[in-house]
C-alpha cells in the first residue's frame, strides 16, 4: 500500500522541480514538498479505505 501511495507524488515532485529549474531557474522547495506530502497522505488514506474490514475477527465460522 505504501509503494502505491508514494509513486505519483514522487513523480509529480521530480517533474515539477525539473520544470521549475528549466523555466524559472528558481525552485519553490517548500511549496512542492508540502503539495507532495498532502498528495501522499490523501492517496495513502484512499488506498487504506479500500481495504475491507474483517468483522468476525477471532470467531470461528460455523
Which features would summarize this protein structure in a list?
mainly alpha, 2 helices, 62 residues
Instruction: List SSEs in N-to-C order.
Output: HH
Spans of at least 5 consecutive residues with low confidence: none
Radius of gyration, taken over Cα atoms and rounded to an integer in Å: 18 Å
- Number of strand elements: 0
The tally of structural domains comes to 1
What's the number of helices? 2
Distance between the first and last residues' Cα: 32 Å
The percentage helix is: 55-70%
Name the assembly state: single chain
Largest sheet: none
What would you note in describing this structure?
The protein is an all-alpha fold. It has one domain. Helices cover 69% and strands 0% of the residues. Helix 1 packs antiparallel against helix 2. The model has no long low-confidence stretch (mean pLDDT 84).
Concise summary:
The chain is mainly α and 62 residues long. The chain has helices at 2-23, 29-49.
Write the layout of secondary structure elements.
Blueprint: H1 2-23, H2 29-49
Helix pairs in contact: 1-2
